[in-house]
Amino acid sequence: MDRRVAVLGTGKIGGILLQGLLKAGLSPQHVFPTVRRAERATALAKQLSIPVGTDNRAAARQAEIILLCVKPQTVREVLEEIRPEVTPDKLLVSVAASVSTAYMEDVLQGPIPVVRAMPNTPCVVGAGMTGLCKGKHATQTQLETARQFFDTVGRTVLVEEKHMDAVTGLSASGPAFVYIILESLAEAGVKVGLPRDAATLLSAQTLHGAARVALETGDHPAQLKDAVTTPAGCTIDGIMELEDGKLRVTLIKAVVKATERAKELILER
Ligand SMILES: NC(=O)c1ccc[n+]([C@@H]2O[C@H](COP(=O)([O-])OP(=O)(O)OC[C@H]3O[C@@H](n4cnc5c(N)ncnc54)[C@H](OP(=O)(O)O)[C@@H]3O)[C@@H](O)[C@H]2O)c1
Predict the structure, then answer these.
(1) From the first residue on, what is the mean pLDDT of each consecutive set of 10 residues in the chain (269 residues)?
(2) Which of 25, 35, 107, 248 could form a Cys-Cys staple with 40, CB 3.0–4.6 A?
(3) Would the pTM of this model clear 0.85, i.e. be above it?
(4) Could you give the angle at the alpha carbon of 168 between the alpha carbons of 23 and 213, nearest 5°?
């Protein structure tokens, strides 16, 4: 947390990570965030009470760790811009979907340590999930350094790079899928007569609690589901409706589609 960190592309996920790192103890004097538009830089600087710039090269020059948070289609442009400042003693950590470490190493044209990470928006409350892998010039220690960063805003898992698009489709897109489930359960509560506020709380805390039990016990989800499902009770009737509505296969297809899409983003200009 005493490292100097540039955050290039302080948009939704860059902003979340920056705020998480500041909350975790990174010194505001040691962060160098950038965005594309000057007016956004001014607004963000006011909101975060730290300087925010538009000069990626200057930010990269001052940093030991460069956190790249721009859209996949903008990665090449930004890497070419900062290339003169990115020396092998620095670490580039990219959260861009779809962009491989080999692609970034190629653009940087040198033995630059690169780590690819795929976080998600719940990092904003310290409940994020981040998958990480390293490029060919990064050491295990540098991968560990990147991991420690993301550990401050949630959980982390090291995966082989071939799985990064799957991580994108599951845990990075996943919050959007889960919010739809959360909203639908709340709507269901309203349908059966609950006040909306209570229905939303019941829904959100139920998802939170169920996820926590799965994480803390390590029990198989099917076993946890069975514990709720009393023979001839009401839960089994609800489960029959879910199976009839193909909830499982729909969720599987959603993750498969998002994973496939993650493979394509880098191909777009
Ligand atoms: N959102 C997620 O849940 C999530 C999760 C994991 C990974 N990611 C990845 O994170 C990346 C950003 O996604 P996002 O959702 O955060 O998008 P976003 O909100 O649109 O943020 C992109 C940011 O990049 C800035 N930018 C654009 N061109 C730039 C340049 N040349 N130099 C410096 N900054 C530049 C934009 O500046 P302005 O503000 O001035 O437009 C904006 O702040 C993507 O590659 C995505 O795959 C996103």
Answers:
(1) 93 95 92 98 96 98 98 97 97 97 96 98 96 98 96 97 98 98 98 98 98 98 97 97 98 98 86
(2) 35
(3) yes
(4) 65
Query: Side by side, which strands form the sheet with 128-134?
Result: 31-34, 5-8, 65-68, 91-94, 114-118, 128-134, 154-158
Query: For ligand 1, what atom is nearest to the CA of residue 78?
Result: 31
Domain 5-161 classified CATH 3.30.70.360? Answer: no
CB-ligand 1 contact for 8 (6 Å cutoff)? yes
- 154 CB within 6 A, ligand 1: no
Q: Burial level of 68, CB count in 10 A (0-12/13-18/19+)? A: buried
| CATH (one of 3.90.180.10, 3.40.50.2000, 2.30.110.10, 1.10.3730.10) for 174-265 | 1.10.3730.10
